[in-house]
Amino acid sequence: MDFDINNLKFDDNGLIPAVVQDFYSKKVLTVAYMNRESLRISLEKGLTCFYSRSRQELWLKGETSGNYQHIVSVTADCDADALVIEVIKDGPACHTGSDSCFTNEIYRKEGEEEFSVDNLFSLLKDRKEKMPEGSYTTYLFQKGLDKILKKIGEESTEVIIGAKNSKEETVYELADLMYHALVLMVECGITPSDIRRELASRHVIDKKVKQEKMK
Q1: Is 48 exposed, middle or buried (0-12, 13-18, 19+ CB in 10 A)?
Q2: Residue 190 φ then ψ, to 5°
Q3: What ranges in the chain are assigned the alpha helix state H?
Q4: Does 121 lie in the same domain as 70?
Q5: Model confidence, pTM
């Protein structure tokens, strides 16, 4: 059932908090505020538009930086006084150039380490920027594109051999291939979001083909 936005509860200043989340990775990108006008603009344009409490004015995310946030969904909480907005972003969400505004970790339970392709990509990107000594990733970046491509070829062959032997070996070799593919992505300036967008576009095309066949 569609929710009537007229039922949203704005605070005494006419604002409602909006948690912006990456549609693909589900990472929280930022928390901003909207008033009725910025929400209206967001829904009309399909781009996030917020209200700046410090400047007391509307601002369309990406208007100056080019880092637009394309809205996929807007969901209100049970009290209708907060929003979660899922977006596909064109670039970093934070004014510092970081992928997310939430980078200052305060606490993490020991032994509970989160893994994701996005986190690994961020780690590899950091390796390229800082080039720490003794790191295999640093070695690959220092050697450059040709060395990285050579490793991609070698690991692809290892995947084929592993697939002939066992599931466990295939998993191991695929992990190696994915790591080197991510190194290549960093080297070429390609992000996981770029790959997701390409796969999503193919999914849409595939659905259209299936619909045509059913006619």
Answers
A1: buried
A2: -100, 135
A3: 36-45, 117-130, 136-143, 145-165, 167-188, 192-214
A4: no
A5: 0.64
Tens of pLDDT along the chain (215 residues) come to 578 889 999 999 999 999 999 998 888 999 999 999 999 999 999 999 999 999 999 999 999 999 999 999 999 999 999 999 999 999 889 989 888 999 888 988 876 667 789 889 989 999 999 999 999 999 999 999 999 999 999 999 999 999 999 999 999 999 999 999 999 999 999 999 889 889 888 866 555 545 555 55
User: Does residue 108 lie within any of the structural domains?
Assistant: no
CA 25 to chain centre: 5
Same domain? For 68 and 130 the reply is no
Q: What is the β-pairing status of strands 28-34 and 16-22?
A: antiparallel
SS (H, E, C) 14-77: CCEEEEEEECCCCCEEEEEEECHHHHHHHHHHCECEEEECCCCEEEECCCCCCCCEEEEEEEEC
CATH number at residue 20: 3.10.20.810
Query: Do β-strands 83-89 and 16-22 pair in parallel, antiparallel, or remain unpaired?
Result: parallel
Q: Which domain holds residue 177?
A: 117-210
CB 158 within 8 A of CB 170: no
